[in-house]
Amino acid sequence: MSAKEQAELAALLSDVRAGSNSAFARLAERYEGLLRHRAAVFSCGQDEGDAYQEACLALHRAALRYSMQEQVTFGLYAKICIDNALKTKYKREAQATGHIAGQAVDLIPFEEGRFFAYFSDPVIEEERVEELLSLIRSELSAYERQVFNLYIQKLSTAEIADQLGRDEKSVKNAISRLLKKLRKRLGR
Question: What is the pTM of this model?
């Protein structure tokens, strides 16, 4: 980004922080592609307007919180904020109903405290999930598989340690290793 573009963005963000609706409209127009894309990705074509509104709110919060001294660009910062807001929205909906937009959801842990979801036809998705779980389990040691099986049941590290008769630090290390393996295997 050129110095002129940075100065324009800084002025725009300053105007948004000052409460200018027109400045936010210009910012939203500037990031329209990002807003639409992230809304489409997270809504899976269902209720995209609601996801878009959530993305706009997250963009506004990002504009209020971002500092030009950050080590990341505003675009990346905004994308992270939007993704986190949409993940939270759909995770809450999934926990409340077990479904999102009429589709069954199966949540699988990916990182400590985070989940990724599988949407669409429940029968087809169940086969895919089983295939993925089988693949995941083949990458893990026997101990990591035991930890993984308890972890996906949403047990805490203390509960897993208690059930396996292991030290909590050992369980945390196993979770760290298995998540690293999963990220590598899933290309994340």
Answer: 0.52
